[in-house]
Amino acid sequence: MKFVCNRSTLQNGISVVQKSITGKSSLPILNGILITAAENELTLVGSDIDLSIETKVNAEVYEEGSIVLDSKIFGEIIRKLPNDNIHINTINSNSVEILCQKSRFTLIYMDPLDFPPLPNINENDMFSIPQKILKNMIKSTIFAVAVDETRPILTGVLFEIKNKKLNLVALDGYRLALKSENLDTDNTISAVIPGKTLNEVSKILEEKDNVKITFTPNHILFNINKTKIISRILEGEFIKYNSIIPNEFNLKVTAKRIELLNSIERASLMAQAENTNLIKLNIEDENMIITSNSQLGMVREETSIILQGESLEIAFNSKYLIDVLKTMEEDEIVMDFSSSISPCIIRNKEIDNCIYLVLPVRLSKK
Amino acid sequence: MKFVCNRSTLQNGISVVQKSITGKSSLPILNGILITAAENELTLVGSDIDLSIETKVNAEVYEEGSIVLDSKIFGEIIRKLPNDNIHINTINSNSVEILCQKSRFTLIYMDPLDFPPLPNINENDMFSIPQKILKNMIKSTIFAVAVDETRPILTGVLFEIKNKKLNLVALDGYRLALKSENLDTDNTISAVIPGKTLNEVSKILEEKDNVKITFTPNHILFNINKTKIISRILEGEFIKYNSIIPNEFNLKVTAKRIELLNSIERASLMAQAENTNLIKLNIEDENMIITSNSQLGMVREETSIILQGESLEIAFNSKYLIDVLKTMEEDEIVMDFSSSISPCIIRNKEIDNCIYLVLPVRLSKK
């Protein structure tokens, strides 16, 4: 194998495939990048089995071939070399030479035949969505996935396609996030993608162009320009989230998002001091009074609202409200409540494309 | 106590004194900030005994008094409040009220009489140096202090005033850093200041104006505008560093600093893979060849130099050379060597105000 590649081109490719390499694998080959040189193109592949990423970069290929190089040291070497052409060629059956200006590295390589093959995916049946929109949908929901692994299905985000819509849903037993966008397809699909995969996908998604998505029974494939991201789909049924979201409410609050967020963040300073995050909301007339107290003292915040319906006293884990209010983008938001023990729904005032649900904290009667 | 203070003014003051509060003290009072309101000025004090910081900020004082507030929660509250005037007043013998727009906090305060008094320092005998220069001197030496505490004196930086010069010296048994600047004083002083104190001092020092320094037998006082920083001086004798620095050499190498730094950083990638950091320098004619190898492979770097004297082969822990080359500022540097087992001296080519010494690694004969 022998090729010449521009340093920054190669480095960009490496940093994309490195997103799938955890460095924690017990299989040494999975700490490596599979590099295949053919037809004036390099194909780089990284994999941790659950998530595999393949990308292509331009190169002048003088001799075709494949090797696997340790991702960390190869990445560091390319990153530290001067921004010039890099010459890479195998010098014997287990070493490769990396030359750039007055630097010469000789690296041991691993056998490309040991590298796990990518799942075979038929790319005929795919749909397309702007990268920017998918990135935003992931950001709007991923914070609500479960962190603990007791119910593995909840560590993923549901991708649901039906009625010409793509819905992303995450929930962890305390709160739920749902974001929807229109999609030009008649398909019906339901698959749960691991949250940590989507974190990496989100880093690769850019502001322009589309991403193409293909589902198989066990995998999802994201095609982004010259990059393919293949993730395992989580096994099991996702919770029927529609049955959790209430439809009828006794009061509706319209509030300014940033003002409310700032008040809740300040109120939660007291609650944090005791690790309870407990804040109380008193909704009455044109004000929401937010209070919290701890051994260190107490806080009272007031924020102007428009209230339709009865007054209410309700308590929350402030973290859940803060997560939602930070993620949302509109200036004005609507909160729907029924009682102090029923979930609260938070949504945009204008665009009906997201629903957030937060369970209240039941206060013991004093 | 009752006063009104602008939020950002108060926040700046808090962030200065917080640099002395570790949050790890077993004395709860040392997690607090002492706030004294008098004569249209607030005095804020933080302390961890070893290091105390006092600063003053403007305020409208309506009722004089003193309280101690938990540094973390008070700091967070002030940071999160809107940028407006903040009204603070005690409401009973153990609570203070913090009001700003529609926010109201009530905080428990601690007894100011429990706060340890600052050491009494006679400020008559002080010398003055531009903040920017002292900041640079600290940065140029502090990286060489010992991290392990087996010889506590080496965890500090020597402040030595003699012959109208201020010398800062740090050493850890493997390398030494010495930076000197002219100082208009006839005093002779030698005191060792804890490295962690100087880290905090360095963060407070700005680009303009002077800092005034006063020594007492046990303390050093830095006066920076409205801020006083008082640090304990380490007990014990510093090593007679002059006797360590050799004066005669067999070869002198002139090199481009950044080019050499980049070569060494790349060479050390291999060495890092095995945690040895071991690199070998072959100095001959117009080239320095830098090599390193590990189980993963090997590297050969070449950098142009001007050599006066014999050729030499010598090995180093690359980290020590990298630390020095990163800290230095001139484009061209000079390295003096005697033999493969004698220390190497690194200094600027032009300005004679710093000396770095690095011990080589003795290679076992093969």
TrEMBL record, chains A, B:
Domain DNA polymerase III beta sliding clamp central per the UniProt entry, residue ranges: 129-238
Subcellular location as annotated: Cytoplasm
DNA polymerase III beta sliding clamp C-terminal domain: residues covered: 243-362
Pfam families in the record: DNA_pol3_beta (PF00712), DNA_pol3_beta_2 (PF02767), DNA_pol3_beta_3 (PF02768)
Ranges of residues in domain DNA polymerase III beta sliding clamp N-terminal: 1-119
Major site of localization recorded for this protein: cytoplasm
InterPro entries from the UniProt entry: DNA_clamp_sf, DNA_polIII_beta, DNA_polIII_beta_C, DNA_polIII_beta_cen, DNA_polIII_beta_N
Keyword Nucleotidyltransferase belongs to the record: yes
Record GO terms (molecular function): 3'-5' exonuclease activity; DNA binding; DNA-directed DNA polymerase activity
The UniProt record lists the keyword DNA-binding: yes
Swiss-Prot/TrEMBL keywords: Cytoplasm, DNA replication, DNA-binding, DNA-directed DNA polymerase, Nucleotidyltransferase, Transferase
Annotated GO biological process: DNA strand elongation involved in DNA replication
Quaternary state and interactors: Forms a ring-shaped head-to-tail homodimer around DNA.
Function summary: Confers DNA tethering and processivity to DNA polymerases and other proteins. Acts as a clamp, forming a ring around DNA (a reaction catalyzed by the clamp-loading complex) which diffuses in an ATP-independent manner freely and bidirectionally along dsDNA. Initially characterized for its ability to contact the catalytic subunit of DNA polymerase III (Pol III), a complex, multichain enzyme responsible for most of the replicative synthesis in bacteria; Pol III exhibits 3'-5' exonuclease proofreading activity.
Protein name: Beta sliding clamp
Native species: Clostridium fermenticellae
